[in-house]
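REQUEST FORM: STRUCTURE PREDICTION
Request ID: SP-0412
Submitted by: Lab K.M.
Chain count: 1
Length (residues): 292
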Amino acid sequence: MRRRRFLTLAAGLMAFPAFAGAPTRWSGIALGAEATLVLSAPEAVARPALAAALAEIREMERLFSLHDPASLLSRLNAEGRLDEAPTPFRDLLARVDALHRLTGGLFDPTVQPVWEALARGETAPGITQVGWSRVRLDGGSVRLGARQKLTLNGIAQGYATDRVVAVLRAHGLSDAFVDIGEQAALGAPRRLGVEDPAQGLVGTITLRDGAVATSSPAATPLGRTGHILHPARPGAAPFWATVTVEAEDATLADGLSTALCHADLALARRLRSAPGLRQILLVSAEGDLRTL
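STATUS: Completed
RESULT:
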């Protein structure tokens, strides 16, 4: 599956002034996407921090991966309920609930059955399963409505990014770059290029001690539409070809960049005032860039 994220480090603009040696780098796959960690610290600090960060990534995959049939999310989708969900699972669903309310329902992970129907080639799948209001969160238990399934692909990478950042901070890192589908920077500023699938490079962001996420519906075609679905009108064309959100944390950036693809300009302007949000970049189908 192609990645839906279009943020790249601008060549030659990744600096690590806090440490004169070569940074410790890791590249691999996390939650179905290419991932990179770059840690600027002496090896005695960087190596155990990297090991702990990779362990955290694997734990996030164990919880949230749709690619792993044994993950906790896959189990929830198969059984319709989950008792005694671990704290990170409950925390992320609480963030989902907050984003659902903040976006007026545009962020809704119960679109997964519709996504699966479109992937099978069905042209007009029903949306009777869609509706976050039918998901019940009661203490440690999670219960889905009849025939419901969740996808957390629009927020789990951001949540995993935040968890890894917390691990690195706990190990004393003050200069690092984390890319798990979403990007976060500690310490030195990083210049990131924002790309649209059709238009190419459309802008840049200088990121420092924060996070950024980009969503482009056309990055993964799904039937006649892109893979980011409107929960009430799954065949509807998105308002924006690409949305980039910079925020204090990657969970917020990830979720909002997903939801804003189907938000009109008035809603995008209202959401700009959300706590922790720094800026929004909207790219139209014609390639015009608007910054809020």
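NOTES: Residues 34 and 185 are 17 Å apart (CA to CA).
Reviewed by: T.R.
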